[in-house]
Amino acid sequence: xxxxxxxxxxxxxxxxxxxxxxxxxxxxxxxxxxxxxxxxxxxxxxxxxxxxxxxxxxxxxxxxxxxxxxxxxxxxxxxxxxxxxxxxxxxxxxxxxxxxxxxxxxxxxxxxxxxxxxxxxxxxxxxxxxxxxxxxxxxxxxxxxxxxxxxxxxxxxxxx
Length: 160
Known about the structure:
Layout: H1 6-15, H2 18-31, H3 33-45, H4 49-65, H5 72-93, H6 96-112, H7 121-138, H8 143-159
Helix pairs in contact: 2-3, 4-5, 4-6, 5-6, 6-7, 6-8, 7-8
């Protein structure tokens, strides 16, 4: 079965009643955890972005505490999983400010992480890619926000 285009889906949804739309959303939420998480964000958390960012930061803190520090293999694996989750949360929000906030927080946590990521080439490269992504995203923001985030980036780079 070939999936319909977004335009076709939008046209079809516009013909449905509110009750049918509700049933479709509920049915969609049963199939994948990500669908349910996105609906949760849109319905309950999108109105207060700062609270959403704080809840994601708490989640990041918990995930960093659970990392198995016995070898760099497990550390790399866990950090990639944390980053994957952060990217998912960023996708839900679709706001550049949220993306920059969360990635800066991730890099700060990575800097403070013990054992140091400097001993692992893969982790250093992952960190550097995130720094480049943050810089690129900051350049797309409003000038006032750019200045605020640039100062945060300077602090982040001075930690190294």
